[in-house]
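Hey everyone, long-time lurker, first post.

I ran two proteins through the pipeline my lab uses and got sequence/structure pairs for each. Pasting them in order. The first:
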Amino acid sequence: MNIKTTWDWKTHQPMIHLMMLRFNPEFVMELGVGFNSTPLFLDYYPKQFICIENDKEWLDKIVDSFPFCSNYSARFHPVSTLNEPIDSGTKPSKLSDEKKREIATYYIDVKREVQEEKGFPKLLFVDNYTCLRAVAISMLGTCFDIVIYHDCQLEGIAWYGYYFGNQFDEYDFYILKTSSSWTGCYISKKLPCEEQELREMIQPYIQRFCTENNLKLETVWLEKQKR
């Protein structure tokens, strides 16, 4: 995977900082590794960290670039085959029924593993292959106390198939909005937090992000969504 990074590829960064700082999750699972997310999680030293990537070359590049503790895990989840080539841009609608069943089976196994983990709170970050994101969130989301996922702007909802119905009724939903990619975040109502507190805590990270990427401060903001 050869990615030319621009600022809109990393608009999730203030949200990651906020959730890691405010809730200090003991168990973190990252679906889709990257230079703009993986090192942020490593910097907060969660007790358990599992990252899962669909591109082996990209996974190796990230693992070679950052120190992983012995109790951290980096895994390759192969989905592409010669008969059914899949890459980061493949839409869910393009998957065969057989491939959909294969992917569902994979996440069922991951779900069992997550349910056995005792760390609290648990955080899931989703920024992996397009065709896997919605199914991963649907099958794993409620096993976690916090779910962060990238590209939830209106165009992204249709592109990635982000339709979750009433699955997250017991969660508060926040969006970090920008002029490009948005980042969604479900927070379990079991975790005590106030909207104003989150707004105040994220502001320094929004300011840093805007400064680093030459953006106007008023173009990035955190918004709680009505359910």
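...and the second, right after it:
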Amino acid sequence: MLRSLNELAGYKVIATDGDAGSVADFFFEDENWAISDVVIDTGKVFRGRKVLISPEKVGKPDGKNMQFPVNITKTVVRDSAGVSTKVPISQQKGEEGQSTPPVSPQNPHLRSADEVTEYAIQATDGEIGHVEDFIVEDDSWKIRYLVVDTRKWLMGKKVLIGTDWFDRIDWSESKFYLDHKREDIKNCPEYDPNEPINRKTEEILYDYHGRPHYWS
């Protein structure tokens, strides 16, 4: 099932033996757009310590009750690696020159979803908007789409852009470059966050952009 990361942020994390905190962020690999870690804020449970949980330990999110189940105990959550063991590349650059080195070797392709939100989207003939959200598969935990908010251009229209449709990404500029004209985006199917994304929705979107279906 395809889900919004913005929606999942704040969900209560439920371990096998009770409340373990809440979802704070997601780390992903910028080479394959796969979620590598779920950042959990343990809140009052463990004095607000933020820890990293592998998607392999995560169950199906419960949208009705806004719960994020994990297949481990609260003790295992408490003893999981802290966020300082994996630092997104932008924060690594910000730490250059500090006297204290990172706890472990850092991943040069690690990104924070929270940080990449608001990155600009550039078409071949001008800017079209910014990243507002990410759409992820909750079985593979691969990010399939960026939700782009065009409100400064098209009065609030939101569109989905496949993560493999970009011509290039300049992480230093915080900008995604799309191989489409603004007119293409203006006329493309609109994304409604209140409606689920099903296969029919994806087929219409992919066919409009003339892209091969990733599921075929």
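Reply from user beta_strand_b:
Welcome! Quick read of the second one: The CA atoms of residues 41 and 47 lie 9 Å apart. The longest helix spans residues 199-209.
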